[in-house]
Amino acid sequence: MNAIRRMASAGPLKCKIGPSVLNSDLSQLYQESQRLLDSGADYLHLDVMDGHFVPNLTFGHPIVKCLRSKIKNAFFETHMMVSNPDQWIEPMADAGVNQYTFHIEPCTEIMKTCRKIREAGMKVGLALKPGTGIEAVRQYVDQADMILIMTVEPGFGGQKFMEDMMPKVQWLRHNYPLLDIEVDGGVGLSTINACADAGANMIVSGTAIINAPCSRSVIASLRETVESSIHKCNV
Known about the structure:
- Helix 7 (about 190-200) packs parallel to helix 9 (about 215-235).
- Helix 3 links the parallel strand 2 (about 45-50) and strand 3 (about 75-80).
- The chain has one domain (about 5-235): Aldolase class I (TIM Barrel, Alpha-Beta Barrel), CATH 3.20.20.
- The longest helix has 20 residues, at about 215-235.
- The chain has an eight-stranded parallel beta sheet with strand order 1-8-7-6-5-4-3-2.
- The protein is α/β, with parallel strands linked by helices.
- The chain has helices at about 5-10, 30-40, 60-70, 90-95, 110-120, 165-175, 190-200, 205-210, 215-235, and strands at about 15-20, 45-50, 75-80, 100-105, 125-130, 145-150, 180-185, 200-205.
- It catalyses: D-ribulose 5-phosphate = D-xylulose 5-phosphate.
């Protein structure tokens, strides 16, 4: 099935808010994840780092599988910041992941990796580092369910939002009106307008949601901004 048919079958563009659980208290991963879902999150964004593609090391499929055993129905997206994405496709599928988002930079056979992910029963996400131009992913958009535009360098939290990444989002939205476009890094109440105006509809936010006195109100505010932008585009 090509991207146009997949997007058409998905219906109208929707706002989706996915908190990054990496910013939460990982000793209470289940409780924190459930709290975020109860606060209105649409999905959980799970950052997987291998210590090679990025310097940091987080968690792998055993943790994801344990979390899935507690949270049966939520949509799990794994953001695979790893040097060999193919290595973890089957384990993550077995762990109950819904969408497998991998970085195109270390890949030599992107289309083959996309096919493996889909055959394993997961949706395909393609991620671009800030230094990777949009031209690097153009020929693969038809293979993807979602494109992730990183708005910080992957691997570290607390970085400043890079507004100069928004032209990538704008190009994708202009050329693929129904494509899910995700932004990740430094996204919060002060930067959501830039993301929404550019056309992002999937919003990953870490500290802005996790550390807020009321996560529910932050999620609601982010959603209101994005949905308003989607509405303007559809009018």
